[in-house]
Amino acid sequence: MPKYVAFLRAINVGGHIVKMDHLRQLFADLGLANVETFIASGNVIFDSKSGNARALEQKIEKHLRENLGYEVRTFVRAATDLAAVSNFKSFSASELKAPGNTHYVGFLSEEPGKEAKKKLSALSGPTDDFAIHEREVYWLCRTSFSESAVSGALLEKTLGLSATFRNVNTVRRLAKKYS
Known about the structure:
By secondary structure, the chain is an alpha+beta fold. The protein folds into 2 domains: about 5-80, 2-Layer Sandwich (Alpha-Beta Plaits); about 85-179, Alpha-Beta Plaits (2-Layer Sandwich), CATH 3.30.70. Helices cover about 40% and strands about 25% of the residues. It contains 7 helices and 8 strands. It has helices at about 20-30, 55-70, 80-85, 95, 115-125, 150-160, 170-179, and strands spanning about 5-10, 35, 45, 75-80, 100-110, 130-135, 135-140, 165. α3 (about 80-85) crosses α7 (about 170-179). The chain starts with a strand and ends with a helix.
């Protein structure tokens, strides 16, 4: 049975507090197996007979909206794909290792089109740089997140797509554990 990771937006931020045992139960109620959570920021690992990640996203989003009372955008990736996501060479090794730089991965609802990619490249500058590969956007922030002029909301607006962001270290830990 394939293993998946669901990256959830709007879990344990902005007043939307969900206990991890409750979140695991919500996933189990959908018939998903071996449900685990990874840190309390909306990372849920599970097994499913389904081979269709998009259908799983829709099913999970609907169930969470019905049970939590608000929209929880859901981005499902096969656990086997996380190694490729975490190892994608979006920026030079020296940039990634430079003091004060932080690397994020944004999981997108779909692959951005040419116009969206052009708009995103216009946001690149001395403090922020971006790369896109398939349904992920890679963000190199050369300052503290709070000092950047870019935010997840701005990136969503620029791309015209829903997204949720994770520190690349979280993605790498998930990939190492589940890929």
